[in-house]
Amino acid sequence: MLPFDAERLQRVMRAHHADVILATTRHNVRYLTGGYYLSFYARAPRFGGGQYLSVVGIPAAQPESAFYVGRQDGVLNEQDYIDAFGPFWIADRRWITRGPSMTAAAAAAAAQALRDKELGGATIAVESSFLPADALDALRSGLPDASFINATPILGELRAVKQPAELERLRQVHQVTAQAIRAVLAEGRPEHTTRQIAGMVQRRIEERGAGFLYVFTNVGPGFLRAPSSIQWGRGRPMHVDAGAEMDEYIADIARMGSIGAPPALAMDLFTACLDAQERIRGAVTAGLACRDLWRIGTEAVTAGRWGRYGRFLAHGLGMVSHEPPEVAEQSRGTLEPSMVLSIETEYLHPDAGHIKTEDTVVVTPTGSEGLGDVAREWCTVPAA
Asked: What pTM did the predictor assign?
């Protein structure tokens, strides 16, 4: 049983006129194999003067005839790692050995596999934004009659509709990230700098079993979000926007807080953020055109007293931040059940700073469901 929606993949590949897809990034290899990636290189693919590269190749006409390229030599036998992983649906496995350019070697092995399958003249979709130049050269050399297109939109559309297990991972990482941010805000002190706050967020995320990705920290008034020597102080709004990952799935959450009572202006802007969130989330449902969601979100943020300071953004989220669905004025897509959206509502006011909230929802047949709706309220830390 394939670990992804084969019919959806075939449909999207046909729409892009692709005969074969070659996945080479860690996240897409894991997605297409059902969770496997060689653990030795999972965090650091660089090796010697190059890097490790594995390949999953899937022909559109026969997904079950897929092939896998990995490493097997006297030092590291990847087959052992596959056996330890468990059932591995791809039977056709090709091997390269450690060398000065494992990327080119893996691409050459993939080219040979395609020739063996009589696909040497096919239209091949490759992850062109991520594929090393020497690997692309090896593919072109080994497949002189082939044509190459970009696989990124194909794989993005495939991943856009999440499986139940993916939604559970996303729910878990969002809850963990929201809890970590709240813990840091609650233990904040006036003398803490935004750089110290950023370090605290990283520690709180990691101690909860997630991988830290990034954090933006802002103290108003002012709009600087890079961690710096600026101190939080009393009565100043703090904005923490953090990303984390668990098993390759990403959370993206923003929360607000202050030490002592927040300024009335900041609270008015925060209330406007929440009101806009509720209006937008109330509109999200399967069948809604993405351009209509963009219009609803933009109107929700820019209407009212603070509209000229408002900004709205929504984007797909899963293994990649800002993956499909695309929510923009000219978007052609439509929301489908089990798509996931990060919704950002924010106001940048010169007298208050960057006031923001960000949450993630999954599209349902009749509406939406929050993922990680934890500690959404303003965190007021008692002033000493």
From this structure: 0.95
